[in-house]
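Teaching soon. Invent one.


***
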Amino acid sequence: MTEAPRTELLAIAVEAARRAGELLRTGRPDDLGVAATKSSPIDVVTEMDIAAEKLITEFIGGHRPEDGFLGEEGASVEGTSGVRWVIDPLDGTVNYLYGLPAWSVSIAAEQDGRVVVGAVEVPMRAETFHAVEGEGAFRNGERVRCRTAPPFSQALVATGFGYLTQRRDNQAAVARQLLPRVRDIRRAGSAAIDLCDVACGRLDAYYERGLHPWDYSAGGLIAQEGRALVGGRPGDGASEELTVAGVPGVFEPLQTLLDDLGAWHD
């Protein structure tokens, strides 16, 4: 099977993310409401999530009709080309619902199961992040890279919380034990943004349990191409069990500590 040109995949990902971001930014109705719930009554999906995913899949499908899809709001197509698009049309739905600015559009392209292209559009910050495997990470066309590692006690770490009650209880317990050991903890509400912020030096590390491929595929590649380390439990890759990203020198002790604290289970 012929490998798709990465320049083509990147151009499609960036443009699809830009169009979806513009739809979400300008099309948000004043009376925006919840269209459905996912894992729990506080894990919501709005009409705009659905509209953005439809825009993305139709745009990509128009250019590459043989590709597959995996999308948060239900897009699931096998495809025959060896390329699969992993889409979060609105990462940070609750922020968007409440009018908070930390939301994004995340699109990754996998080639034969490996993420090779990622784009994250952050409309309210007027930022577009992108990466191609082996070619570095970029914000608005300018190369970015992660920070130099501070002492662990001075690390600024971001995290997120799930929507299942038992999971949230354990996540709070982990954060309570981690907080005294680092500079501070941030919780912005968009995994894709947090991963990009590790890539460009705004955070020293980020971790979360319960992410899905559409949450971390694009942002994870961008973080890696920004010279951060990305994984899960020690020896494992990022997964629903645990996703950790951080600058070298902070990533390793954080990953070990999170494993010891049981951040990987509910």
